[in-house]
Automatic annotation (TrEMBL):
Biological process according to GO: citrulline biosynthetic process; L-arginine biosynthetic process via ornithine
The family this protein is said to belong to: Belongs to the aspartate/ornithine carbamoyltransferase superfamily. OTCase family.
Full protein: residues contained: 70 to 378 of 378
GO MF annotation list: amino acid binding; ornithine carbamoyltransferase activity
Main subcellular localisation: plastid
Protein name: ornithine carbamoyltransferase
């Protein structure tokens, strides 16, 4: 079945700059409405969403469920033990069954291919709530937070310090669409996916660098961004990674080298004392909580766009 007028949200670079900025504008608008206490804007009234989680979550689950509800809809949480997609039942069957009950599907999965299969077989929009490959809703929330605190994304310098993971891939794909300076500074052997780096560089939109010296990289950054060193699915490597990532902790000294203009961002959950110090998270220039709040507002706008509303 064709998804006429309906759109998946799987990767940021599936959209052009105008559309991404339009979604972010919408997010600001609906955020202001919700923050004013207004509860009569109910575009999702009569609609339901299935949320498939193969991994744990706080922000993604609560922000999607709350946001969808506040705009009139009903969201259904399906945890790792509920449908066991790919094990109890094939992805293509899950996709077609849920499409007959629900207006939209959100999924947090391990393999990115499973998300692509889900989207391919679903006749309703599928939203990416994180895979091993990327996390586009997070980076949309981050972009919204930068617009609110810095005024824009364009022309800024964002320095991600740590593992070249799913978060980095979404930053790279944003950089393929909106012009800014993106640096991923990581230990050797922990670079982001080479094809994604190449794709972002080939787009010719942004200056993109993959480097290995945090002190050099952060100079003049508008944003210093950090994430866990061991992602979900890699937790048994955590001990080993702590050794390899020595020197990549974001501490007050690194923030000082970055400069007084630098904000600290982290997608959370954070391991304080590992990839970032307690002092940096608690500092006045840390915007991790506005960033977390914006998950809900960015996603509300994404869902409105996906549903053609
Ligand atoms: N940042 C984020 O996606 O958080 P959760 O894993 O808690 O959803
Ligand atoms: N890179 C992290 C992000 C969590 C929101 C992970 O995949 O676990």
């Amino acid at each position: 079945e064709e998804k006429t007028g309906l759109k998946d949200f799987l990767h940021i670079d599936d959209f052009d700059k105008g559309t991404i900025l339009k979604i972010l504008d919408r997010a600001k608008e609906v955020k202001a409405l919700l923050k004013s206490g207004e509860r009569t804007y109910l575009p999702f009234k009569g609609k339901t969403m299935a949320m498939i989680f193969a991994k744990p979550s706080m922000r993604t689950r609560v922000s999607f469920e709350t946001g969808f509800y506040l705009l009139g809809g009903h969201a259904i949480y399906l945890g790792p033990k509920d449908i066991e997609m790919g094990k109890r039942e094939e992805t293509r069957d899950v996709a077609r069954v849920l499409s007959r009950y629900n207006d939209i599907i959100m999924a947090r999965l391990f393999a990115h291919q499973d998300l692509l299969d889900l989207a391919n077989y679903a006749s309703v929009p599928v939203i990416n709530g994180l895979t091993d490959y990327n996390h586009p809703c997070q980076i949309m929330a981050d972009a919204l937070t930068m617009i609110e605190h810095i005024g824009q994304i364009e022309g800024t310098k964002v320095v991600y310090v740590g593992d070249g993971n799913n978060i980095v891939h979404s930053w790279l794909l944003l950089a393929a669409v909106i012009p800014f300076h993106f640096v991923c500074v990581c230990p050797k052997g922990f670079e982001p996916d080479a094809k994604t780096v190449e794709k972002a560089q080939r787009a010719g939109v942004s200056k993109i660098e993959i480097t290995h010296d945090p002190k050099e990289a952060v100079k003049g950054a508008d944003v210093v961004y950090s994430d866990v060193w061991a992602s979900m699915g890699q937790k048994e490597e955590a001990e080993y990674r702590r050794q390899v990532f020595q020197g990549f902790q974001v501490d007050e000294e690194l923030m000082k080298i970055a400069g007084p203009q630098a904000y600290f961002m982290h997608c959370l959950p954070a391991e304080r004392g590992v990839e970032v110090t307690n002092e940096v998270i608690e500092a006045p220039n840390s915007i991790v909580f506005p960033q977390a709040e914006n998950r809900m507002h960015a996603q509300n706008a994404i869902m409105l766009h996906s549903l053609g509303l």
